[in-house]
Prior knowledge:
Number of helices: 17
Mean pLDDT: 90
Radius of gyration: 22 Å
Helix content: 55-70%
Order of helices and strands: HHHHHHHHHHHEHEHEHEHHEH
Strand order of the largest sheet: 2-1-3-4-5
CATH class of the largest domain: Alpha Beta
Distance between the termini: 48 Å
Number of strands: 5
CATH topology of the largest domain: Rossmann fold
Low-confidence stretches: none
Strand content: 5-15%
Number of domains: 3
Amino acid sequence: MIFVTPHLQHLYKQLGIKSDLAAETVDLIWEKFPNMENKYGPVGKKKCVDDLDYTLAFLDVAVENSSYELFSSYINWLIVLLESRGLSKQWLKEALIVLSENLSRLNPSKEKELAVNFLTQSLSNFNEELPAPAYIQPDQPYAELTSRYLEFLLNADRSSAWHLIEKQIKAGVTIKDIYLHVFQPAMYEVGKLWQIGQITPAVEHYCTAATQLFMSQLYPFIFSGPKTGKKFVAACVSGELHELGIRLTADLLEMEGWNTQYFGANTPSISLLDAIIKNRPELVGISCTIPLNVGKVKEIIQLVRNERVVANTKIIVGGNTFKMAPDLYQKIGADYVALSAEAALIIAASMV
Length: 352
C-alpha cells in the first residue's frame, strides 16, 4: 500500500490484507469481469491498480478530516479523467463497491463508519454527467485576450504570447487585470485540458513555465509602488509542487503595498516556521493543491501556534484542496480560506 496513510491501515489489516489492497481489489474485479483482461491487458490493469491506490489515499485523508467533499471531488475528477482517455469508469465503481462491502464486515468504529459512508455516497457520482468546467467564458473580462494568449502558448509560441501581454499593458490594461483575468483563468483551463486528455503533461508544463516567466518580467512594475508596512509570507507546503496560484497571490499583494516573501514550491515546514519567526508577518499564506498534502498544512499551522512569539499570526490557506472542501480550513486551524486570488486580496485588505 504505497500511498495509504496510517489512519485506516488498522482497518485494512483486519481484512487480512497481506500485500497491496489496491492490487487485491483489482484482482477481484478482473475475476468478476473476465473481459477486462482482454480489454486492458497487464498495462491497463497496472494503471487501474495505481488509480485505486491513489483513491485509497484520498479516502484516508477524507476520513482523517471527516470531509466527504474531499473524496467525492476526487472521484468526480477521476471519472472525467478516465472517460476522457477512453477508459471505463465501471471498474472503479465495482472497486468502490468491493471496498465498501469488505469494510462493512469490520467491527464498529468511527473510521470504519466514515469510510463505508463515503464509499457508498460516492457511488451516486457515477450516475451523473460530469463535464469538465470551462474556465474561459465569453462574458468574462478580457475573455478574447485570454483565449488568444492561451492559443499562443498551446502552439508553443511564447514570443507571441508575451508580445500580446506587453501590448495590452502599453494600451493601459493593468498588471492586476492581467494576473486576475488572463493568467489565472488561462492556467485553470490548461489544467482542465490536461485532465480531459487534450494536451500532454509536457504542454501543461510549458504553458505554466511561460506564464511564470512573464510574471517575472513584470516584476519591475510590481515592486515599484508605495508600501503599507504589512508583511506577507507565502509558500507551498512540503511535497507540493503546484506553485503558480500562491505566487500569483503574493505578487498581487505586493502590488497592493504589502512586503511579501514567497518561498516557492515544496517548502519544508521547519524552514517556513523559521521565516515566520524571523519576519513576524501579519499574514501567512499556505497553498495546498493535492489533498494528500493537507497533513503538511496542519503541521505547519500547529508549529506556528506552538511558538509563543508568532502564535497569533493570521494564516490563510488556499489551493485546489480547499476548493474541494471549503470548510476544511477551520478543521486544520487556519484563520481564513481563499478560493481565488481575488478572495485573498479582499481578506488582506480587511487587515490593513
